[in-house]
C-alpha cells in the first residue's frame, strides 16, 4: 500500500525553501550529488551512460517539480511511477533508492550548512521516502 502524504504544511515549506537555496547553483548541486552517489555506490556510475551534466539537470528539475507539488502529490503519482519503471529498465536496483536518498541528504547538508537543521532533514527524509515509494511502485511487479 502506498504511504499517505505525511508532511505537514511547515515541512512542505522547509523542503521548498531549502530547495530554493540549493537551486542557486543547480549545476554545482548536481555535481555534488553525483560525486556523493558514486562514492557510496561506484556501480551506480554504469547506469549513467549519457551526459552526466544533462542527467544532473533532469535530477534537479525533478526535485523542483516534486517540491512544488508536495501538497498535491497525487497529481505527480503517475509521473513518479513512470520514472520508476524507466529506472527499473535501466537496471536500478531497489536498494539504490536508499543510497540516492543518503546522497541527497548529504548534498543538502553540505550545501545548506547550518541551515540544514534536524527539521529540514526530517522534512526531506519524509518527502524523499514518498517519492521513492511511488517510483518503486512503478517497477514491474511493484504495487499498484
UniProtKB/TrEMBL annotation:
One of its GO terms (biological process) is cellular response to nitrosative stress. It holds the Pfam family Globin. Gene3D superfamilies: Globins. Keywords: Heme, Iron, Metal-binding, Oxygen transport, Plasmid, Transport. GO terms for molecular function: FAD binding; heme binding; metal ion binding; nitric oxide dioxygenase NAD(P)H activity; oxygen binding; oxygen carrier activity. The keyword Transcription regulation does not apply. PROSITE patterns: GLOBIN. Residues 6-140 form the Globin domain. InterPro entries: Globin (IPR000971), Globin-like_sf (IPR009050), Globin/Proto (IPR012292). Belongs to the globin family. This is Globin domain-containing protein. It comes from Deinococcus sonorensis KR-87.
